[in-house]
Specification:
Helix content: 25-40%
Shape: globular
Radius of gyration: 18 Å
Structural class: alpha/beta
């Protein structure tokens, strides 16, 4: 079981240009997208969050169930669902403004126990910024790491939600001793101001940096660097692409029985290349369609090179 902990929200995606373009509601949130992507790839997955009792909250849970994700660890509340209004530029990249005051996911409380059979827990995005939920997710991260559970972190910076950047950067650094795998975009890396080597020295066994259409690079504790190019695709938008990378990495590592710090280094050049190519292909499919619509395993199975079939064993 891979547990994804974090927010579920509604993306309002413009269906045209200009400030008053019609908005289409779409299921979203970085952790939510990661959970859906894992479920579609066939990984046993559970979602750990707090969602509203409103119609949007029900739709979010339905989306998880349709992907085969266990929702028994999801808390519920009467507060409204968080809204994220997306703006899409000419290259398909998305920027967001958020409506988060008094919303359900901010009131998450850390559960006493993780679901039985948990092998990894994934964290990231708004849930690690907005209090009081951020402290609860942080507590869960530290506790999971303390019990030897593999932890993955994608900070997925939303600068508009961070009132004190320096305080957040310090907090981010405090998480690193509890992180097994750190994944972030090159934009996030620039905003945080550190380097992969500095982050590796603080705790993670591997750091994966995404570079959009230019591909992905993994840095490991033994000093190795592994890179693959991006997959050529006609980009509709990039919503959910990074979340799909998260899911593909975790799915592939689970299949290789590599959800441990030592195993990340032990993958070697061949293992990392296969894994990164798989993640690049999965993200490209997500970028080829509107909104966060990660691929199903069958959509990857017939592609040349890395495929879902390469990582079927052990999941």
């Amino acid at each position: 079981m891979i547990v994804v902990a974090g927010e579920a929200l509604i993306d309002l995606v413009p269906q045209g240009t200009g400030a008053l373009a019609p908005l289409r509601p779409a299921l979203g949130g970085g952790p939510y997208n990661t959970a859906v992507a894992l479920g579609r790839l066939g990984s046993p997955t559970a979602f750990c969050s707090r969602t509203s009792l409103d119609a949007f909250g029900e739709a979010l849970l339905d989306g998880l169930r349709e992907a085969g994700v266990d929702v028994s660890a999801v808390q519920r509340g009467p507060e409204p669902t968080t809204l994220a209004v997306a703006t899409i530029d000419a290259q398909g990249s998305a920027a967001y403004s958020f409506y988060v005051e008094g919303t359900a996911d901010r009131l998450f409380s850390a559960p006493r126990e993780l679901p039985e059979g948990t092998r990894a827990v994934s964290f990231g995005t708004c849930s690690l910024v907005l209090e009081p939920g951020a402290s609860a997710y942080e507590e869960l991260m530290r506790r999971a790491a303390g019990h030897g559970v593999f932890t993955a972190l994608d900070p997925n910076i939303r600068a508009g939600l961070i009132p004190d950047p320096d305080a957040y950067r310090a907090r981010f650094e405090s998480w690193l001793p509890s992180v097994s795998l750190l994944k972030l975009s090159e934009e996030d890396a620039a905003w945080l101001g550190g380097t992969p080597r500095e982050w590796l020295a603080a705790g993670p066994a591997a750091v994966v940096i995404t570079r959009g259409g230019d591909g992905l690079t993994a840095y490991t504790r033994d000093g190795a660097v592994h890179s693959v190019p991006g997959e050529a695709v006609d980009v509709v938008d990039t919503i959910g692409a990074g979340d799909t990378v998260n899911a593909a990495l975790l799915h592939g590592l689970a299949a290789e029985d590599a959800l441990s710090a030592d195993a990340l280094v032990g993958l070697g050049a061949e293992g990392w290349t296969r894994l990164l190519r798989f993640a690049a292909r999965a993200a490209a499919i997500t970028c080829s369609r509107a909104g966060a619509e990660p691929p199903y395993a069958a959509e990857l199975a017939d592609q040349n090179g890395a495929s879902a079939g390469d990582f079927a064993g052990g999941v």
